[in-house]
C-alpha cells in the first residue's frame, strides 16, 4: 500500500536551506537580469510658472516705451525752461529776495512740511541767481539729452528748490512738473532723440568703445565735491534717514546713492563687462519700467479724480461750469473769442459735459486702443483750448506732455521719420541717407550713455 500523499522532497545535505525559502533558478536576480534604470521625465513648467517667467522677462528684458519717455523728457524740460525764461524779469519777486513770501517764512514752512529746497542754504542774492541759472541750464541740457542721467537729477533739484521756495505760485501744471521731475530720475529717457543716443550710435557704427570719458569724470567729481561741501556745511534738508523722497530715506542718502550708482555703472561698464554689467542693466531696466508704470497710473489718477470731483459740482451738473472762467478778465487773453464762445449756450453745455465725460472715461478705455486714441486726441484738444482761451499755456503744455505717455509708438516713429526727412531737406548733409528716417532702433539705443560716467 502506498501513501495517498507524495513524500515532500528533502533538502540536500549541506545546503541548510529550507525548501520554502529556496529561490527558483528562473526568478533569481543577477546583474545580467536586473531591469534597466528608467530616466526621470523632463520637468515641465506649470502654467503659473510660465506666466511668471514671461512677466519677469517682460519687465527686465528691455526698457519699454523709449519714444514715449523721450517725449516726456523733452516736454517737461521744455515746459519748465520756457516758464523760467518767461519769468526771468520777475524771478526775484517770485522766488528770490524780493518775494513777499520772505526766506524766513519759507524756512518756517519747510520746517513744517519737510519739503526739499537748496535756496534756504543761503540768503544771498548771488546764491539765488546761481540756482536759477543752473535750473535753466539743467532744463536745456535735459531737453536735448546731454548726460540725461545726471541732468535729470539736476533738473529735479532745480524744480523742487524753486517750487518749494514759494508754494503759492502756480496754476496746477507746476504740480505735474513737480511729480514728473522725480519720476524721470528713474527712467532711461535718453534712449532716442537725444545727444546721448547719437553718441552711442556713432560709437556703435565705428565699432569702438568710448574712451575714458573725461567730461563725464570731471562732471561726476565736481558734483560729488559740491554735495560733500553742502553736507559738511549742514545744508538744509540734507538728512540721512528722514524727510526724504522715500520713507526712512533722507535726501542725503538719496543724492549720495545716485552719485555712487553713476560711478558704479561707469566702472562696471568699463572694467567688468560680464555678469556684473548684466545685473546692473537688469536693475536699471526694472527701475525704468516701474517708473513708467507709476507715470501712467499718475496720469490716470489725475483725470479720474478731476472728473469725479467735477461730477459732484452743481455747475458741472447743470452744464454751465465752463461759462464762468471764460468771462473772467484774468482768464481772458482773447476777450472777443471768449465772448463769442460764451454767448452760445449749446457750445457751453457741450464743452462742460464733454470735459467731464472724457476725464471720467479715459482710464477705462486703456484696454481698447482705438477708443483710447480717440479720447487722447480729445484731451489734447481740450488742453490746447485751455491754453488759448484761458491763457494757461504752461499748464496745458504740462498736461499734454503727461498725456504723451499713452501715444502709440507707430505714430511717434512716423513723426520721427517725417521730422528727420524735413531736417535732411532743409540741412542736407553728405553721405548716404540712413534708412528709416535716420532714427536708431530702440533696442540699439537702449544703452545710450551707458559708456559714460554720468550719461
UniProtKB/TrEMBL annotation:
<feature type="region of interest" description="Disordered">
    <location>
        <begin position="427"/>
        <end position="455"/>
    </location>
</feature>
<feature type="transmembrane region" description="Helical">
    <location>
        <begin position="248"/>
        <end position="268"/>
    </location>
</feature>
<keyword id="KW-0812">Transmembrane</keyword>
<feature type="domain" description="HTTM-like">
    <location>
        <begin position="61"/>
        <end position="411"/>
    </location>
</feature>
<feature type="transmembrane region" description="Helical">
    <location>
        <begin position="70"/>
        <end position="88"/>
    </location>
</feature>
<feature type="transmembrane region" description="Helical">
    <location>
        <begin position="340"/>
        <end position="362"/>
    </location>
</feature>
<feature type="compositionally biased region" description="Pro residues">
    <location>
        <begin position="1"/>
        <end position="10"/>
    </location>
</feature>
<feature type="transmembrane region" description="Helical">
    <location>
        <begin position="374"/>
        <end position="392"/>
    </location>
</feature>
<dbReference type="InterPro" id="IPR052964">
    <property type="entry name" value="Sporulation_signal_mat"/>
</dbReference>
<feature type="transmembrane region" description="Helical">
    <location>
        <begin position="289"/>
        <end position="309"/>
    </location>
</feature>
<feature type="transmembrane region" description="Helical">
    <location>
        <begin position="216"/>
        <end position="236"/>
    </location>
</feature>
<keyword id="KW-1133">Transmembrane helix</keyword>
<feature type="compositionally biased region" description="Basic and acidic residues">
    <location>
        <begin position="19"/>
        <end position="46"/>
    </location>
</feature>
<dbReference type="InterPro" id="IPR011020">
    <property type="entry name" value="HTTM-like"/>
</dbReference>
<feature type="transmembrane region" description="Helical">
    <location>
        <begin position="126"/>
        <end position="146"/>
    </location>
</feature>
<feature type="region of interest" description="Disordered">
    <location>
        <begin position="1"/>
        <end position="46"/>
    </location>
</feature>
<keyword id="KW-0472">Membrane</keyword>
<protein>
    <submittedName>
        <fullName>Membrane protein</fullName>
    </submittedName>
</protein>
<dbReference type="GO" id="GO:0012505">
    <property type="term" value="C:endomembrane system"/>
</dbReference>
